[in-house]
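User: quick one, sequence for these tokens?
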């Protein structure tokens, strides 16, 4: 094959998707309201307590702080001021950080797919590939959202964190290839979700600096907000005595030193606790607090507050499959910029990078390092010192073109297939057990196959011809991917002849997992937890399907949207 491309596939994919992944805005905002949780009093009182300073929690806190006292509890640290987060040149070191204070926390689903969850102020917007695209108008309508407020909320987000990306040669070739493959019309640059091919937004500015959901805290009323970092919430407290149903009234959290603190809601009928801990964290915290399947909770010696068997159900992760295309000529470093929105239910995206090998002087190899990453060249269970040393020695012998090329990927919309989440332990720092059941529904598999067939058309299109080697057939390109350790699933020999087997064998995450506290099942359409009072969940765990091509725009919008709805509701009730 030359250059050992297939051995580098896994590391290269993460490199390209996440090259700027932990880059924060270079200048940290002067957030006077942000503190380490070790400075918190033993007991405190607020109008609102938000658990999780992520993609939804930050805009929600900023909005509610305009009129009320808000406590935002984030289990991770700040995205600002840490060179391993801020500096692109140090990106490999950030991803290799497996310490308890790392901005990401790795987990492996029961399906055998390696994944990650955020552990930093700003949440997944500090870790993702930066693509910014709104949900379809039908999605908002089916969610029962007010269209005018949805648009206003998107615009509120976009004023601070969304930009138009500069499109260079490789992305232009993918764009033209999509159109030639029949993903039409070409809709130009837009944030909107429209059938056809488009250039979407990005949360990277023109200087390559990432703007995360944490930046939305610039909108906050500094006298109304307290943000505590390294504050891990262990449980929500409920009052049951003399109540017709349990009333959430406080939380217990621990700081980095392990000291326990309690925060309570001030007295008042409309004060609330809001959980925004993400698709893993929110159902996990409800269960740890006694809201979940009674039998499962009792098995972990958790006192049942409400028997709610649907907590942790409906877990989904949009399956992603990619084809690596080595390039005979240099390609630009690009994250997700162009997307093809098909009528058959697959989204086609692409990312490229000329050289993610890092500095040869340090021999760290950046994103190609076998020591790091979700998809490094050495499978996680085989990362012994001897195996790592052998991999580094092999990489030292490679020529520069081995690192050159790009990925064209397809993501299945929805998806229809669902799984479930369960507790492993009662420690909120531990990952729960999660099963996504990729491709359990045959329609998801069919969408993957059609997506790959479209990618093949792009690769064979005239606009893309200069970025591929003539002698590498489509079957060879499929085998480059299939032969790499991208997940822990068993491999089959016939993948280049069977696209359905290729889908199953090479399934990866694109980090768009959701569910576990779904609307109509665990929360109502106002995001209030069913069966209890003064408790809401507002984040991606409430989604039935992932919104748009990439969810972050809609998750940020939802935080602002629901903040405004809650303020308007209180204004109306206070006026009566």
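Assistant:
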């Amino acid at each position: 094959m030359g250059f050992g491309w297939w051995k580098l596939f896994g590391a290269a994919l993460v490199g390209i998707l996440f090259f700027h992944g932990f880059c924060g805005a270079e200048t940290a905002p002067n957030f006077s309201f942000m503190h380490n949780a070790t400075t918190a009093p033993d007991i405190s009182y607020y109008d609102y307590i938000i658990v999780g300073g992520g993609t939804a929690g930050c805009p929600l806190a900023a909005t509610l702080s305009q009129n009320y006292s808000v406590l935002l509890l984030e289990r991770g640290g700040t995205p600002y001021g840490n060179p391993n987060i801020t500096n692109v040149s140090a990106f490999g070191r950030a991803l290799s950080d497996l310490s308890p204070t790392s901005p990401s926390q790795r987990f492996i689903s029961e399906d055998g797919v390696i994944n990650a969850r955020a552990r930093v102020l700003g949440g997944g917007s500090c870790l993702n590939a930066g693509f910014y695209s709104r949900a379809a108008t039908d999605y908002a309508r089916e969610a029962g959202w007010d269209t005018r407020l949805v648009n206003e909320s998107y615009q509120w987000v976009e004023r601070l964190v969304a930009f138009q990306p500069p499109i260079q040669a490789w992305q232009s070739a993918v764009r033209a290839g999509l159109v030639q493959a029949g993903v039409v019309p070409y809709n130009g640059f837009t944030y909107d979700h429209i059938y056809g091919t488009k250039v979407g937004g990005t949360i990277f500015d023109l200087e390559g600096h990432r703007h995360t959901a944490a930046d939305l805290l610039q909108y906050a009323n500094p006298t109304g907000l307290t943000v505590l970092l390294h504050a891990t919430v262990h449980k929500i407290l409920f009052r049951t005595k003399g109540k017709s149903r349990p009333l959430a009234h406080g939380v217990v959290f621990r700081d980095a030193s392990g000291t326990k603190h309690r925060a309570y809601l001030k007295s008042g009928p409309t004060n609330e606790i809001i959980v925004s801990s993400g698709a893993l964290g929110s159902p996990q915290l409800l269960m740890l607090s006694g809201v979940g399947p009674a039998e499962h909770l009792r098995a972990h010696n958790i006192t049942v507050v409400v028997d709610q068997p649907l907590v942790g159900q409906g877990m989904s992760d949009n399956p992603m499959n990619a084809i690596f295309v080595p390039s005979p000529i240099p390609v630009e470093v690009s994250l997700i910029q162009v997307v093809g929105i098909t009528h058959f239910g697959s989204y086609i995206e692409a990312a490229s990078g000329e050289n993610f090998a890092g500095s040869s002087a340090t021999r760290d190899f950046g994103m190609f390092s076998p020591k790091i990453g979700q998809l490094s060249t050495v499978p996680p269970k085989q990362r012994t010192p001897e195996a790592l040393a052998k991999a580094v020695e092999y990489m030292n012998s490679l020529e520069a073109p081995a690192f050159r090329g790009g990925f064209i990927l397809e993501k299945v919309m929805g998806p229809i297939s669902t799984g479930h989440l369960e507790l492993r332990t009662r420690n909120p720092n531990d990952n729960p057990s999660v099963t996504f059941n990729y491709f359990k529904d045959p329609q998801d598999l069919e969408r993957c196959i059609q997506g790959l067939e479209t990618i093949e058309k792009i690769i064979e299109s005239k606009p893309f011809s200069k970025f591929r080697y003539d002698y590498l057939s489509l079957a060879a390109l499929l085998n480059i991917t299939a032969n790499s350790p991208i997940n822990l699933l068993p491999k089959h020999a016939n993948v280049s002849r069977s696209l359905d087997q290729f889908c199953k064998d090479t399934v990866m995450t694109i980090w768009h997992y959701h569910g576990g506290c779904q609307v109509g099942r665990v929360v109502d359409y106002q995001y209030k937890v069913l069966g209890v009072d003064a408790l809401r969940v507002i984040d991606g765990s409430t989604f039935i399907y992932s919104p748009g091509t990439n969810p972050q725009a809609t998750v940020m919008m939802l935080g602002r949207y629901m903040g405004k709805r809650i303020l308007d509701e209180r204004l109306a009730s206070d006026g009566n």
